[in-house]
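S1.2 Input.
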Amino acid sequence: MSSNGKKRGFDADIDSPEVQDFFKRFIHFSEKEYGLGIDGIKKLLFKLEKKHEKTIPISVFDNNELSILESVCKYLKEDLNLSYHKIAVLINRNDRTVWASYNNSLKKRKKRLLVTQSEISIPIDLLKNRRFTALEVIVLYLRENYNLNYHKIGVLLRRDERNIWSTYQRARKKNAK
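S1.3 Output.
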């Protein structure tokens, strides 16, 4: 709480007159100083949100040794230096599952993953949906958001395109339910 007794931060009531007044002044200032109307502000906020969204570069999956979940855990642990607990919260898994996946990845591949910049990246938030396996959600995302064919997805994930096809079909059926 601030010195005048008002709550600050995320607990602010968006319907309060103070917050409403703040945004009216912000919009007026944005229009006057930068020529940004409501639509311009929305676009800017969307870009900023996307910029700060945690993503996994597709190159993380460019290996023959690891499963999708093992690759994700290895990347988040070694490249982003996240704790097991933070990884577990990010991907909606149990801490022990994350620990086991990471340790399995170390047994299979001691070297770090070769992570390169790519136009394709996977939002980590997708992995929170436990209705789907990690592979299913990634295949579904690549197929529907990037309109990639099964062969291209298979090449990117180092999986057989027939497995990609069956994974996509299974994910679509789950998605329809």
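S1.4 Remarks. Residues 9-52 form one domain.
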